[in-house]
Write a structure and sequence with these properties.
heterotrimer; A alpha/beta (126); B alpha/beta (487); C alpha+beta (105); A: 126 residues; Rossmann fold; B: alpha/beta; 17 helices; 23 strands; 35% helix
Chain lengths: 126, 487, 105
């Protein structure tokens, strides 16, 4: 059976490694990107089943990436999970909502929550 | 603020948003346009309540009992099973289409009220889901009657001690809340569900618009309906104790206790900022000592000096640290951030804390760690530290080195978020002397002095006292002159 | 409808139940209005009873009663509900006429 692909976007290799391990052990195929530009390119060409997007990226902000993904009809349907440490910040959350994210994870992210969120979104009915 | 008793709903993320769940024995209104998922939420909560031992009644007005149970079963709620077990009772109040209802004069909802009383007595139900109030009050009576009917209903629920979830239709996503226009102020909690459709994009959101006598997260949050029901993101959130214990403890420095209106608050993280030589380490030492003298377990993580040097420096000012270490209540651990990766340091910290189980933690100074890593790595590390500290309800004091004259300036946002209290130490020249100051910049959950206090080093450590008004004026002028000279 | 109608057995009786509560002003008004209206009809054609919801919640359950007072036309089918104290007077009369029961002359 074909494995579902998940694109992990984060410039911190430690975080990518950790999440990649959790998700591949759960049976997903993981692709990694370390910049926003790379993420947009890979999303376009590979059309993954879900994108895990850290909001702090070196070239363009994660919010910006999300907006672009959602505006492009080719990638608009892909669920985007934003990873943010700014849980308590109203602004960050509104920015996230405005950019069209489908869900949030709050740093530090524990394995169980990561997996549950991913599974729930991939299984999303509407 | 009296704390409300809450009932968990089991809907992922919902209990986070509401800091604990539904108000027990009260009414919650769930409002949304058709198709926003109200019925799913209602059934999902009903199923969870039943499974956790709370018998529930679901009253369906627009949908038949069979349809409601079928909807629930498709999403895996097992409503049929719960009904068989007697935990769930689905009451069907559907009127067949060919059975007309004519309104002719005044009436009340006591018919329903009596039926519900009877049903509750029969089933022992403690919770009820009404789907929906809008359907119940169709055809719609004049506004004042409607208000009165709705109130009678909610009053009935309250009298029967029912935790009630009332679903209602909204005409639009963002305008007036409900078609009935009255329900929101009669209920203790109001939840709004929305579905924004924009071409290809469908986005569901949920919002707790009001929660009487309780904290809650404000604004819209994304949610989705999966094969297992509704889920709200984020599914989890950092734990914030709902009722913060107001227990205070002494900082170990008399003047500082005065500045903070009684000492530090339990379970808070304090950040002490200042230039080199401003007295941060001394303050940290006094803090640790006070804790150990109270027989609390304290761990002091030093990142600046080797352990023997640190202990000796403290003993030279008469803190008797060496003795406290021998006694076992105080543990001093020195680490070198340049020599180890931050992930390893974090693991080391976590293990050490689990083993020693301290109630107070000191880290002197986090700047050493900052300088040994990238901005991102440091941020991740600090968030990890905050999480470990909060997860175990510990109080902590972290020191940070900043340039002289800049201590009062804005901190990196994530550090401001992590720190519950920020104390800044500073100094400026005053002739041949130094004017040393200490100021409580922020202290969450407590009133505090905002003026700087005067700091002096002496035997036994620090002495802190208020400036006389002249003294303060002079100090400010001296500081301004110094700053002008620098620029 | 013109023409003589056979009276008695072959025309089904209309069954009406007025659901009330003992303690309501609407109740008194409803009863009064019902009795007044019904006085103009042949009592053999109409079976009328009053039922207190608080005494018989099971009947209220079976008949799907939410509001009070409400007059339920049980028979002939389909059922119909007239909610309120019947201060709007033609509802009851209309109901009966639609079942083929004419007022007495």
């Amino acid at each position: 059976m074909e494995r579902r692909q998940i694109l992990i976007v984060d410039d911190y290799p430690g975080a990518r490694y950790l999440r990649s391990r959790i998700l591949s052990e759960a049976g997903y195929e993981v692709i990694e990107a370390s910049t926003g530009t790379e993420a947009l390119k890979l999303a376009q060409t590979l059309r993954p089943a879900l994108i895990l997007l850290d909001v702090n990226l070196p070239d363009i902000s994660g919010f910006e990436v999300c907006e672009q993904l959602k505006q492009d009809p080719a990638t608009a349907h892909i669920p985007v999970v934003q990873i943010t440490g700014a849980w308590l910040s109203e602004d960050a959350r509104q920015q996230g909502m405005a950019s069209g994210a489908n869900a949030y994870l709050v740093e530090p992210v524990d394995d169980v929550t990561l997996l549950r969120s991913v599974v729930m979104l991939i299984e999303s009915l509407t | 603020m009296s704390m409300m008793k809450k009932i968990r709903t089991g809907v992922p993320g919902f209990d986070v948003l509401t800091t604990g769940g539904l108000p027990a024995g009260r009414s919650t209104l769930v409002v949304g346009r058709s198709g926003t998922g109200k019925t799913v939420l209602g059934l999902q909560i009903a199923a969870h309540l039943c499974r956790t031992g709370t018998r529930t009644i679901v009253v369906g007005i627009e949908e038949s009992k069979e349809d409601l149970i079928a909807t629930g079963d498709t999403l895996g709620f097992n409503l049929s099973g719960l009904t068989t077990q007697g935990l769930l009772h689905v009451a069907d109040m559907m009127r067949a289409l060919d059975e007309p209802t004519i309104i002719s004069g005044e009436y009340d909802v006591m018919g329903l009220v009596h039926r519900l009383e009877h049903l509750v007595a029969q089933t022992g139900a403690q919770a009820i889901v009404l789907d929906s109030a809008t359907a119940l009050f169709t055809p719609r009576p004049p506004q004042d009657l409607l208000r009165s009917h709705f109130f009678q209903l909610v009053h009935c629920f309250r009298r029967l001690g029912l935790t009630a979830i009332i679903l209602a239709e909204a005409p639009s996503d963002y305008a007036q809340l409900t078609t009935l226009g009255v329900e929101d102020y009669v209920c203790d909690m109001v939840v709004i569900m929305r579905l924004n459709v924009d071409g290809e994009r469908r986005r569901r959101t949920i919002e707790v618009a009001k929660y009487r006598r309780s904290g809650h997260y404000k604004g819209e949050f994304p949610c989705t309906i999966t094969t297992r029901g509704l889920a709200i993101f984020p599914l989890d959130a950092p734990d914030r104790p709902e009722s913060e214990r107001i227990e205070r403890y002494s900082s170990g420095v008399a003047g500082l206790d005065e500045m903070t209106n009684g000492g530090f608050l339990r379970n808070s993280i304090m950040l002490v900022r200042g230039p080199t030589g401003s007295g941060k380490t001394m303050l940290a030492g006094l803090f640790a000592r006070a804790g150990a003298l109270r027989s609390e377990r304290v761990v002091y993580y030093g990142f600046e000096e080797p352990r023997p040097t640190l202990i000796r420096n403290f003993d030279q000012i008469g803190l008797g640290i060496g003795e406290l270490v021998r006694g076992g209540d105080l543990k001093i651990q020195c680490r070198y951030p340049e020599a180890t990766s931050l992930e390893d340091l974090l693991v080391d910290l976590r293990l050490g804390l689990e083993e020693f189980q301290p109630s107070l933690v000191v880290m002197d100074s986090i700047s050493s760690i900052e300088h040994a890593s990238s901005e991102k790595g440091f941020r991740q590390f600090m968030i990890g530290v905050a999480s470990i500290l909060r997860g175990h309800g510990r109080s902590a004091l972290l020191t940070q080195t900043v340039l002289a004259g800049t201590a009062a300036e804005h901190t990196a946002p994530y550090l401001s978020t992590i720190a519950d209290a920020i104390i800044s130490l500073d100094y400026s020249p005053a002739g041949y002397e130094l004017n040393r100051t200490m100021r409580v910049v922020k202290m969450r959950g407590s009133a505090h002095e905002t003026h700087p206090y005067r700091l002096e080093f002496g035997a036994g450590g620090l002495k802190i006292e208020r400036w006389s008004s002249d003294g303060y004026e002079n100090a400010v002028r001296a500081e301004d002159r110094w700053k002008d000279a620098r620029s | 409808m013109s023409g003589a109608r056979p009276s008695g057995a072959s025309t089904p009786r209309v069954e009406l139940v007025l659901y009330v509560g003992a303690d309501s002003s609407h109740t008194a008004a409803a009863r009064r209005n019902c009795e007044e209206r019904l006085a103009r009809f042949d009592h053999r054609r109409v079976r009328f009873e009053v039922c207190d919801v608080s005494q018989h919640p099971d009947r209220a359950e079976d008949d799907g009663i939410c509001f009070r007072p409400v007059l339920l036309k049980r028979r002939p089918l389909p059922r119909a509900y007239v909610v309120g104290d019947l201060s709007n007077s033609t509802a009851l009369v209309d109901l009966l006429v639609s079942c083929g029961v004419e007022p007495l002359r």
